[in-house]
Design a protein that fits this description.
The chain is α+β, with helices and mostly antiparallel strands. Among the domains are: 374-471, Immunoglobulin-like (Sandwich), CATH 2.60.40; 477-565, Sandwich (Immunoglobulin-like). The protein is 50% helix and 17% strand. It has 17 helices and 23 strands. The chain has helices at residues 13-33, 35-42, 47-63, 65-99, 107-138, 145-175, 185-205, 219-237, 257-273, 277-283, 289-294, 314-337, 344-369, 574-597, 604-628, 633-656, 681-691, and strands at residues 178-179, 182-183, 300-301, 305-306, 381-388, 394-397, 418-421, 426-433, 436-443, 449-457, 460-468, 479-484, 490-494, 497-501, 506-507, 511-512, 516-518, 522-523, 536-538, 543-551, 554-563, 659-662, 665-672. The strands form eight sheets. Strands 12, 15, 16, 20 and 21 form a five-stranded mixed sheet that branches. A hairpin with a 2-residue loop joins strand 1 and strand 2 (182-183). Helix 3 (47-63) runs parallel beside helix 5 (107-138).
Length: 701
């Protein structure tokens, strides 16, 4: 006899399943939240490759549920499938975490471990995805259908709760905890690995309490076999028999008419799924392109609180929890009160519009964000800025260029880079100081950025060329370097980050420091001279060069801003998150309800597999565009918005020709979105309302 929770009809076993799902979703979304920045800042991939691999992983996570369903239904059953694939899941997390430890092997080893870990995680999370919720439903007796519905609400709340907490916590573990001299990705991946171990242990602990149904055979395989037989039979015998109304009718010799009619119903829905991947192509960019956009924004809320760029993804989970009851209790009833007939397909189409508007908002934000970005030099050109440390004005003359016509003042902030021809050959630069002209010779390479440091010795000016990095920091924090004018080399520490300053007008390496005020620093060689050195605010996204000079026995730092700080506040991302979440509520949740209501009882898993495949193909679209289009980011956002609007038109036309069905009476059809009545309109509306899943389910499965 199944044990019940005290005073309820809920089996005790569901407690283990809900806790397991919470920990597993924390594990998955916690790891995924920091994944793009891991590629960018730890593996040092560029933005396009980071985005492509992120979406390739996401896509694989939604292809593998079919494999999990096949294993569970055909041979192992749900219980054993969840356990075995959870073990694969745990191994993947552990391998991924080890790959994030800098002392383990070289960069190639880190990449290899990361990819192996992600593949194992994809097989683990995807494999158990179709099993856990269904296994929870199996714990209830048939007469307790209402309790089963309430369980699913609790189950999906645990999904969103795990997602919300993980996207808040793991970015903090990544950046606020320092290990191995930098951001602690090993910990950020290790904690989700630990949660997945907890999820597995909790699930196994409830083993003796579970109701376990043996594998019944896979309906998906039967559907595929029926379709294959119909195609094969029609191909062989079409010349002898042309009386069949539908190509699936060619399977009647082997399969029942009931099964064939149900497959026809499923195929009508699957045809509607064809345009749907474009919605997911936009939706899943919250963890990739939108996170990268956040790294180039100002993330400070006042003086004491800042958010991480990868924490912004928590808004989606938070807004889902807020919007679902608002739509259920207020918006949908108001629409019905106004006698507006909003069918499920029309809701889904409206959700597409909101997602397109979200990317329109992201485009506007991006157009302002890029104003602080230094564009790389075009072909045949380079970028150059000049630091004048000579105590007087200096004039420069470059062959083949009329730039730098005005004299460069002493310690003048260069403000911006100038574009110069770059032939790759040694260039003669004429330098005039105090009426004397001297010459410097340097090679300038195309696409590169340089700083030219000028310093005087008596009446002679010397010049030194320094390579610059104009790319904004991948995690949004400022970059800092020092130009040492002292004859000796020494170390200088800023906020726990140590800089090695070479001697005699040489530049230190660019390093990441946390955003904040730095009223004091420490020196290894001249502690008393550094006591009053104040760097001021080092802001998000900026790159600074601090020229260290000695004045009146102490060091003074002249701070130059090589790359401007981020001046667009991250709060401007909130509208796009609000719009995309409204789109998710109307598109995704309604889509699940529609699929459920239009599928025969034994075919719901087939449509669930089809639904998950739309997510997989959506990520494939992003992968192709990220690697193949080569567009500026704002143009790419605009392209996606335009493509989804085009898909909205196609989907709306397809919806007009779709007629709703009663899965229990597959020979009857009802009202289409075109407004055509076929048979019993009132019966349809009541039936669709009765069989809709209880709203509140997120697609974060």
């Amino acid at each position: 006899m199944t044990k019940k929770l005290c005073g309820t009809n809920y089996p005790v076993s569901i407690c283990f399943i809900v806790v397991n799902e919470f920990c597993e979703r924390f594990s998955y979304y916690g790891m995924k939240a920091v994944l793009t920045l891991y590629f960018l800042t730890y593996l040092h991939w560029d933005k396009d490759l980071s985005t492509a691999v992120y979406h390739a992983f996401s896509s694989l996570c939604y292809f593998t549920p079919i494999l999990g369903a096949l294993i569970a239904d055909s041979c192992l059953g749900k219980f054993k499938t969840i356990i075995y694939l959870s073990i694969v899941y745990v191994i993947g997390h552990v391998v991924k975490s080890v790959g994030a430890i800098p002392t383990v092997g070289n960069s190639d080893m880190h990449i290899a471990l990361s990819m192996v870990g992600l593949i194992l995680i994809a097989f683990g999370t995807g494999g158990i995805k179709p099993c856990v919720a269904a296994f929870g439903g199996d714990q209830f007796d048939e007469e307790h259908g209402s309790e089963r519905q309430k369980f699913f609400s609790i189950f999906y709340m645990s999904i969103n709760g795990g997602s919300l907490l993980s996207t808040v916590i793991t970015p903090v573990l990544r950046s606020d905890v320092q290990c191995f001299g930098g951001d602690c990705y090993a910990l950020a991946f290790g904690v989700p690995a630990a949660l997945m171990i907890v999820a597995l242990v909790v699930f196994i602990s409830g083993g003796i309490l579970y109701k376990k149904t043996p594998p019944q055979g896979n309906i998906l395989l039967e559907v595929c076999n029926c379709i294959g037989f119909a195609i094969k039979n029609r191909w062989k015998r079409s010349k002898y028999d042309s009386q069949r109304k539908h190509w699936l009718d060619w399977a009647e010799e082997k399969y029942s008419k009931r099964l064939i009619q149900e497959i026809k119903m499923v195929l009508r829905v699957l045809v509607l799924y064809i345009p749907l991947p474009m919605f997911w192509a936009l939706f899943d960019q919250q963890g990739s392109r939108w996170t990268l956009q956040a790294t180039r924004m100002n993330m400070a809320f006042g003086d004491s609180f800042t958010v991480k760029p990868d924490q912004m993804q928590m808004l989606n989970a938070l807004l889902i929890l807020l919007f679902v009851p608002i739509f259920d209790l207020i918006i949908y009833p108001l629409v019905g009160f106004c006698r507006i007939n909003v069918t499920p397909l029309r809701k889904m189409a409206t959700g597409m519009i909101f997602a397109a508007l979200a990317f329109g908002a992201a485009t506007l934000v991006e157009l302002n964000v890029v104003k602080t970005v230094v564009d790389p030099a075009p072909a045949g050109k380079c970028l150059l800025q000049v630091f004048n440390l000579a105590e007087g004005n200096v004039s420069l003359k470059f062959p083949g260029s009329d730039l730098f016509q005005e004299p460069i003042r002493y310690l003048q902030d260069p403000h911006k880079y100038e574009t110069l021809p770059a032939s790759g050959e040694e260039l003669q630069i004429q330098v005039t100081f105090n009426g004397n002209t001297s010459e410097c010779y340097h090679k300038l390479l195309q696409h590169e950025a340089y700083s030219l440091v000028l310093y005087s010795d008596a009446s002679t000016v010397h010049c030194k060329l320094v390579d610059d990095d104009i790319t904004k920091n991948g995690d949004g924090n400022p970059l800092l370097r020092f130009l040492n004018t002292q004859p000796e080399a020494f170390n200088l520490t800023v906020g726990g980050v140590t800089f090695q300053l070479p001697s005699a007008h040489s530049m230190s390496v660019n390093k990441t420091v946390d955003r904040g005020e730095y009223p004091e620093v420490s020196c290894s060689l001249y502690p008393e001279k550094c006591s009053s050195l104040d760097l001021g605010l080092l802001d998000f996204g900026a790159s600074y060069t601090v020229i260290l000079m000695e004045e009146a026995g102490t060091f003074v730092g002249y701070k130059m801003e090589d790359v401007n700080a981020n001046n667009v506040h991250i709060a401007w991302q909130i509208p796009q998150y609000v719009l995309i979440t409204i789109g998710e509520v109307m598109f995704s949740i309604t889509g699940l309800e529609f699929s459920y209501s239009q599928a025969p009882a034994n075919m719901k898993s087939v449509l669930q597999a089809g639904w998950l495949l739309t997510v997989a193909f959506g990520n494939v679209i992003v992968l192709i565009v990220a690697e193949g289009a080569g567009l500026e980011q704002w143009k790419e956002f605009l392209l996606f918005a335009g493509l989804l609007l085009a898909v909205f038109i196609i989907f709306s036309i397809m919806a007009c020709f779709y007629t709703y069905v009663d899965p229990d009476q597959p020979d009857k059809t009802y009202l289409g979105d075109s407004g055509r009545e076929e048979d019993d309109d009132d019966h349809l509306k009541k039936k669709v309302k009765d069989v809709h899943l209880k709203r509140g389910k997120s697609t974060k499965l």
